[in-house]
Amino acid sequence: METKVCSKCCVEQPLFKFFNGYKKDKVTRRIIPVCHHCRYKQRLISDPTHLKKRHLKKFYNLTMEKYKEILDQQNGLCGICHEKKSSYTVDHDHSCCPGEQTCGNCIRGLLCHGCNRGIGQFKDDVDKLKSAIRYLDSHKSKTPH
Q: Which one of 29, 82, 87, 127 is most buried, counting C-beta atoms within 10 A?
């Protein structure tokens, strides 16, 4: 197996870790001096939001600008508990897009991890959520202080 030494990390690696797309003729690959891992690290240093942008686009068909717009509409808070958190997950209607990726049109808002998991456990079933509220309300006075 052919190998090459990365000019950045000085580690010898298989040649395929140095390919960078295709040349104009779409047949011959270009070999670059820096390995994929080092290029990726450089990308994250130059753009710390790179991973978040890719994730939003790939799974929710959402741009970072639209994500920030939604968060601004929610005053920077979780859409359910209205608390400020360090990060939020994109909540979408699973009946529209049941798979891992969404169309982007069924996004309901941004939720903290706990709230998103909570409604996920109820499988977005409003009747079950109402039943849970009734249950909690009926046991309020029975809770010792």
A: 29
Torsion angle (degrees, nearest 10) of CA 82, 84, 86, 88: 20
Fold designation for 49-138: His-Me finger endonuclease fold (3.40.1800)
CA 114 from chain centre, in angstroms, equals: 15
Instruction: Tally Cβ neighbours within 10 Å of residue 42.
Output: 12
Residues, the chain, total? 145
Query: Domain map of the chain by residue range?
Result: 3-45, 49-138
Could you tell me the pTM of the whole model?
0.72
Q: Scanning the structure block, which residue is given the tokens 């970072």? A: 64
Tens-of-pLDDT digits for all 145 residues of the chain?
889 999 999 999 998 888 776 555 555 667 788 999 998 898 888 998 999 999 999 999 999 999 999 999 999 999 999 999 999 999 999 889 877 789 999 999 999 999 999 999 999 999 999 999 999 999 887 656 6
